[in-house]
Amino acid sequence: MRSGNTVGRIACAMALFVAPRWGYAEEELRIALVSNALSVEVAGIQLRLFDGDTGALIASWSGLHETTIRRGARGVVVEGTHEAPEARPETKPGMKPETRPETKPETRPETKPGTRPETKPGTKPGTKPGTKPSSAPEVISAKAAPATGAIVSPSLRSSPSSRSPSSKPLSSMRSNDDAKGSKSAEAQAEAPGPGAVVHGARRVIVEARDGIRVAGGLYLGRLEIVPDPDASARDRLLVINRLPLEAYLLGIIGSEMNPTWPLDALKAQAVAARTYAMQRRMMRRAANKTYDLESTVLSQVYKGADQIRPLVIQAVKETRGEVLSYGHDLVEALFHSTCGGHTASSEEVFGREIPYLVERPCTWCRASTRYRWHVTVPLEELSKKLSAARLASASVKNVERDSDEIAVLVEARGAKDRRLKPRDVRAALGYTRLFSNRFVAETSGRQVVFDGQGFGHGVGMCQWGARGMALAGYTYREILVQYYKGATVKRLY
Ligand SMILES: [Zn+2]
User: Fold this and answer.
1) For residues 241 and 218, is the Cβ–Cβ distance under 8 A?
2) Which are the contacts of 62, defined by CB distance < 8 A and separation ≥ 6?
3) Are 331 and 271 in contact (CB under 8 A)?
């Protein structure tokens, strides 16, 4: 847990989830965080692991803990544990009020043990029917008991560790009468060495009170760790973050847009991102996929709860449940950084006509450094990259943009000159080398000069344009209908 500020923001963010709901229920999303991993390390306060199929508690730790999960012959294996180096929860700023309940959470089976059920997004009642292992702590299965006997034993469930805030996690787990917090040496002696197998399961569910740290990020909700279904990764793990849609949005808006931008730009982004996520979720579930969204630019950039900022919380909260619809359908709410003067139609870019993704004028993105850009690429580099992409068979001697295509003239006799699509040239050179498909190209000596406009595919909402419109006083609804023509904002819950 890096900072009190982060935790404070999360606590603040969690307050969102006590808001009343009506109509449609908020959906749970499954975000692929890590794939193709041999093992993963997870850490958190009051970290708890469950068998994903039976709901049985595998292991539970009262303090800040980390543990390793790897792929074994018969599924997912939770390995030996050790204390996290900074395991002194009471020293973390911003966490004192909730840090030490008077009784150990596992002794209260009627509520969600180890959590604050009324606020924690990952455990909100009704958000994950059928999978909530809330009764698990009382039904630790025989097979969950580790061979070492050191990780889980029935006595731990009523351990009064909470009476001794300074006791270390293993110590507090181990005994019912070590309430003085002086057992760290004993804990070390009793701790299993690394590699002690605790439990094997087809899938493992991980929960923690204030978010789970994995792969460099802090994530709200729960983690589901499963064998990677990708055929090329049979011995690998896939880590999926399961969390309510609104909690996901808190994590994503600050990654997709500068979190210090005007509120209405952030609100427009929140509605677009919510719509996009719901639409993807519907498609992926219909296709019976293991998860709904990637955590990279392939879907929407998601770096977990570390990106949560006050304005983002406000933007998500004030648009809660709002989506873009066209007729009875959810909009395909595509967005991009900078259009450079006008947006592009989906037909132009993706070859698919969509009534609300049409070309729209936009000069609000002028403040973007990519509104106009100028990039010089040596002919030699262009030749290499076009060859690697099988777009040219010989050295390029001249390039010029001609209507919708790029004429590529080559040097070798007998080799054919080519006419290429701008998007293919951009793909070959790299998406951050040429910032959009909108450019003119001209050869100058042994260099090719690209003069372009915009950053990204240009379809849907222009993010810098949304910022410009918000600064000019437009509301988020006005911003959205500017970029998604004929769409309307509807509130689903
Ligand atoms: Zn624009």
Assistant:
1) no
2) 46, 104, 159, 161, 162, 169, 172, 173
3) no
Structurally, the chain folds into a number of domains equal to 3
User: Can you give the pTM of this predicted structure?
Assistant: 0.69
Q: Verify that 188 and 326 share a domain, yes or no.
A: no
Domain with 322 in it: 247-333+463-491
Nearest-angstrom CA–CA distance, 165 and 156: 16
Residue 447 lies in a domain: yes
Residue in 262, 204, 209 with CA at minimum distance from that of residue 238: 204
User: How many whole angstroms from 236 Cα to the centroid of ligand 1?
Assistant: 42
In sequence order, the β-bridge partners of residue 377 are 448
Q: Do 238 and 105 share a structural domain?
A: yes
**Residue 202 and residue 289 in one domain:** no
Mean pLDDT of residues grouped by 10 in the chain (493 residues)?
46 42 72 89 91 86 87 74 43 34 35 34 35 31 31 30 32 31 34 48 90 90 89 80 93 89 98 94 91 78 79 96 94 96 94 96 96 94 90 80 70 73 89 90 90 94 98 98 97 92
Span from the CA of 338 to the centroid of ligand 1 (angstroms): 5
Amino acid at 355: P
Length of the chain (residues): 493
Residues 244, 296 contacting (CB under 8 angstroms): no
φ, ψ for residue 106 (rounded to 5)? -65, -10
Q: Give residue 361 CA to ligand 1 midpoint distance, Å.
A: 8
What is the CA(419)–ligand 1 centre distance, in A?
29
Inside any domain, residue 353: no
Where a domain ends, among 244, 260, 276? 244
Question: Which of residues 202, 218, 244 is at a domain's end?
Answer: 244
